[in-house]
Design goal:
14 strands, Acetylglutamate kinase (chains A, B), about 20% strand, globular, about 260 residues, homodimer, alpha/beta, 8-stranded mixed β-sheet, 8 helices, Carbamate kinase, nucleotide-binding (chains A, B), EC 2.7.2.8 (chains A, B)
Chain lengths: ~260, ~260
């Protein structure tokens, strides 16, 4: 039987709160076996862009990553945030090792092609973007890879890449070697049927139930891409996708997405 | 016979010049066999501190690393500079992997004790600071570790650490496993007997010759700690220390320090 590999993804909310982040890292240290952490960025990069007078370039509500913005997000994601998380995990007894996609060529992306909008230095991933062999080597050496949302194109260009996409692409790539459980951690206890009721967590969602919930308008708009992404990962061989509270990963309350 | 391991250290001058940096990385890619790169920081961190209105804290001409300064140098050294170097090496065909000391606990430092001066978040190294086993594993996996000048204390605190010290401490730690050649690269062709004459490179310096040159006042003040450091590394088992021009590492002009 294959070993279990738990892949956790955390976002900006928890990264911006030092106390919550250290609580999450302590919980992560309690998760047995092999694991990978993928983190997004927090508000720090935006604050620094403002302080430095670099105006956000937005098109249709989406940020454009120009060269100055790429520099700042690289500094925050791959520098400050990644190293603080790694040092925090080391203190908690986890032998963490931080990586951008350029490190060991672990995630090679393609700069998003310009169609209607030029998103700038943003990387898209494909099935073949992930160096699963290196991640497996690191895991077998007892290390916990900590991936930030910066990748490269293999020709010297760093690229800003969506952390949810990194987490699910890494999960799919490692599904051939491990029984992968992919955990999207956020500030709610799971998928809620009523966004105003924190106790309305759905314990389990199958593809059929998901279709019903979408038809009934029960899925919040912001949750849709995350869940579409999650079910695609399940179809591609990931064993289980879990939506849960970053501070309660070792508690039973959560939403488990499963193939049937 | 032991394999040869070349350890290169580059400083701020070359990091601040994008063209020179890419020239150096192309030369580094031509060096055969196993290698490690250690890099300092450039002027970028200081510029950003100024832009953000964080006044440099200096005591007796030495910078104090307060919390705000540590954040910025971590962002620059471990984020921007480290990832640009790694992406550049990947483009040149070198499978580079960037590391701070916290990553894989590769360099654990001790916060400098407060005596007359509190240097703040500055890390000192000892013989046992380096995780030689992990560096060896990465080298055997065909990777080229790229170390920045940020370490940690193992209890969650990142620390700013001198890059020359990191290079020589890593060289000493790996001397048990490899025939180590330690290269200090800078903007001159080697140790000069006449600082105003770039052609006065001394090809070879033994400890005896070094003592003579010091007595005769032939060593520039800025070069003294570097050379003291270098001879200490030789005594501790490093095979060869080379002082050379970062843009001429594959040319014969250089100063070789040797035990006898």
């Amino acid at each position: 039987m294959q070993d279990t590999l738990n892949i956790f993804k955390i976002g900006g909310g928890i990264i911006d709160d030092a106390d919550q982040l250290s609580q999450f890292l302590a919980e992560l240290a309690r998760v047995p076996g092999r694991k990978i952490l993928v983190h997004g960025g927090g508000k720090g990069a935006n604050q620094m862009l403002t302080e430095l007078g670099i105006a956000p370039q937005m098109v249709n509500g989406r940020r454009i990553t120009d060269a100055a913005t790429l520099d700042i997000v690289t500094m925050f994601y791959a520098g400050k945030t990644n190293k603080q998380i790694v040092a925090g995990l080391q203190a908690a007894g986890v032998n963490a090792l931080g990586l951008s996609g350029a490190d060991g060529n672990v995630i090679q992306a393609t700069k998003r092609p310009v169609k209607d909008i030029d998103y700038g230095f943003v990387g898209d991933l494909t099935e073949r973007s992930v160096n699963a062999q290196l991640l497996d080597q690191l895991l077998r050496a007892g290390l916990t890879p900590v991936l930030c949302a910066i990748t490269h194109d293999g020709r010297g260009q760093l690229l800003n890449t969506n952390a949810d996409t990194i987490a699910s692409t890494v999960a799919r790539a490692l599904a051939a070697l491990y029984r992968v459980e992919l955990h999207f951690c956020f500030e709610k206890d799971g998928v809620l049927t009523d966004i105003n009721d924190d106790n309305s967590v759905v314990p389990q969602i199958t593809p059929e139930r998901y279709a019903d919930m979408k038809a009934a308008g029960q899925i919040a708009a912001g949750m849709l891409p995350k869940l579409d992404n999650a079910f695609a990962a399940l179809e591609a061989g990931v064993e289980k996708v879990v939506i849960e509270n970053a501070l309660k990963i070792n508690e039973p309350v959560k939403t488990i997405l499963c193939r049937s």
